[in-house]
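#onboarding

Welcome to the new folks! Below is a worked example of what a typical request in this channel looks like: someone posts a single protein sequence, and someone else replies with the predicted structure as tokens. Don't worry about understanding the tokens yet, we'll cover that in week two.

Example request:
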Amino acid sequence: MRRGRDVPLLVARARDGDARAVARLITLVESGDELLPQVAAALAPYAGRAQVIGLTGAPGVGKSTTTNELVRSLRAEGHRVGVLAVDPSSPFTGGAILGDRVRMQEHATDPGVFIRSMSSRGHLGGLAAATPQAVRVLEGAGCDVVLVETVGVGQAEVEVASLADTTLVLLAPGMGDAIQAVKAGILEIADVFVINKADRDGADATVRDIQGMIALGERGPGQWRPQVVRAVAARPEGIDDILGAVERHRAWLVEHDELRRRREARATAEVEAIALGVLRARLGSLHAGTGLATLAAKVADGSLDPYAAAGELLAELDQRVAG
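Example response:
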């Protein structure tokens, strides 16, 4: 038990490729363990060493199959690969099937691949709250490419774009007409569109719709124009084309100093999320007292407005912090 909570030892073992140590570190991250600040401090020197690729799209478009084939190709090129596959959790039981890992069993015995399924635990946006810190763990473990696969998402779950260097949005024929393509907000985050299952009827129409949507976008000189790639991941076909588009995007990021900007924005969001989490915990502690209940009763009977009540609550919090 002591060895399982010895952060320097765990990080050293993770750096040596010990999958159990990597898993233990991610478990500490997911559980919000009190050792998390120590874990973050120990991993900080290894930040920014991995290329982070996000894969998102609606349920059934083939995200897990595509991820599996990307892992195969990346391993053939000699990369050490980490995979974080986020699955939805039940709103009733809190449980999750974590089935994405089942589809990648062929890589389970490869020491150059680490696959972790994560429950979203009710977190919105397509990821789990712990995903950014889990990426840091995989970077510290020596993964030079990290694939982050979101839950099956709809039109508004775009959080992966703030985490990834390159975001792949997977689509499949039959997603709808051109109007549906234009109004789907998730399409706006794509650096590369992957039209998977491109052997099906309607693939040409889907490509045309996406290309038409891209043409409507306003871009200044030198800005990245999202690429559209066809694939049939189940065969597999088009995987090299996907990786080629990813590499072209990475070269553009470096050339235009966009990689640094994106990673600084990622760090900003990460720090902000941690700070807000601490504030929420402190606000939660106010439930133990009578102040919040008293304010809520006044708001309910109309003797106090909610903004004034929130101001009083924050003033109480400031007093606690000062004290």
